[in-house]
Amino acid sequence: MRPVSGYVGRFAPSPTGPLHAGSLVAALASWLDARAAGGRWLVRIEDADTERCQPGMGEHILQQLAGCGLLPDEAPVWQTARVDRYQAALDRLTGAGLAYPCGCTRREIDAALAAQGIGHDRHGERVYPGTCRHGLNGKAARAWRFATWRMPAPTIDWVDRRLGTQHQDVRAEVGDFVLRRADGPWAYQLAVVVDDAGQGITDVVRGADLTDNTPRQILLQRALGLPMPRYLHTPLVLGAHGEKLSKQNGAAAIDTGTPAAARAALDAAAQALGLPAAPLQDGVEQALAGWVAPWAALYNPAL
């Protein structure tokens, strides 16, 4: 649960590939936010989706962070060591009537939406049509879903520290989202909520691509009686064609093999965050320290 006082932030990479320029922006932002608030900064390796994770990649990411001077204040935690917590949360939701098994395939969901005259953008959200809300109708359970339709207030209004007021009707825009997938892994939405609460996270600083996930997480926090952190979603680093830089589209790993290379990677991340250039003669640690005050002036992380 959240500490009575004090800031706790975190960086939570998935070990599906090495850190690239975009993920370093999120890491640096979360570290600076914690330091500007005089708080603690944690690292959590989000390896719950074991099929997508690469062996040894979590350790490699930690080495990349260390090369950039971004050292956590506690030993990193790994999601694969916390699966009992996710099961306990799912059991609570199921007992409260807020989670149910679903036997639908993606093809069946698309067909049900098409029958209702609802199109689907390939990159957009599939709004679950509620087929299994009242029973599996003889189908085998493939996943577990959160019953947004049972929540008294599925419309979420919240304030992002950079983007300002945000609004989403989760029931209408997302539907009953997945908590545990058909192939076994725990869904990001449930795991991140359980872990943030378990680690006492007060402030989540992460990339803007995760902004529309936040309302789902707030709904889960309310359903489980967990505290809501403050949120700040950082600018995205874009590729040559305007797409989000990501592991999926072949983003190159950052080079942290030498202090000069790590410093160059940090300089690029700081520039993406709107921070001033650090003196060329500064080492990694001096550059990091010099960005704390400008970050505080931009984003005011004081509690």
TrEMBL record:
Give the EC number.
Answer: 6.1.1.-
Cofactor(s), names only, from the UniProt record:
Zn(2+)
Q: Name one GO molecular function term.
A: ATP binding
Q: Which GO terms describe its biological process?
A: glutamyl-tRNA aminoacylation; tRNA modification
Motif 'HIGH' region, per the record, lies over: 13-23
The residues listed in the UniProt record as binding Zn(2+), with positions renumbered to this chain, are C102, C104, Y128, C132
Q: Where does ATP bind?
A: K247
TM annotation in the entry: none
Q: Where is the Glutamyl/glutaminyl-tRNA synthetase class Ib catalytic domain?
A: 10-254
Q: Which is a Gene Ontology cellular component entry for this protein?
A: cytosol
Q: Where is this motif: 'KMSKS' region?
A: 244-248
Q: How is the cofactor bound?
A: Binds 1 zinc ion per subunit.
Q: Which InterPro entries match?
A: Glu-Q_tRNA(Asp)_Synthase (IPR022380), Glu/Gln-tRNA-synth (IPR000924), Glu/Gln-tRNA-synth_Ib_cat-dom (IPR020058), GluQ/Sye (IPR049940), Rossmann-like_a/b/a_fold (IPR014729)
Task: Give the keywords, sorted.
Answer: Aminoacyl-tRNA synthetase, ATP-binding, Ligase, Metal-binding, Nucleotide-binding, Protein biosynthesis, Zinc
Any Pfam family: tRNA-synt_1c
Binding sites annotated in the UniProt record for L-glutamate: R10, F11, A12, P13, S14, E46, Y188, R206
Describe the task this protein carries out.
Answer: Catalyzes the tRNA-independent activation of glutamate in presence of ATP and the subsequent transfer of glutamate onto a tRNA(Asp). Glutamate is transferred on the 2-amino-5-(4,5-dihydroxy-2-cyclopenten-1-yl) moiety of the queuosine in the wobble position of the QUC anticodon.
Fetch the HAMAP family from UniProt. Glu_Q_tRNA_synth
Q: Which family does it belong to?
A: Belongs to the class-I aminoacyl-tRNA synthetase family. GluQ subfamily.
**The name this protein goes by in its record:** Glutamyl-Q tRNA(Asp) synthetase
The organism named in the record is: Pseudacidovorax intermedius
The taxonomy runs: Bacteria, Pseudomonadati, Pseudomonadota, Betaproteobacteria, Burkholderiales
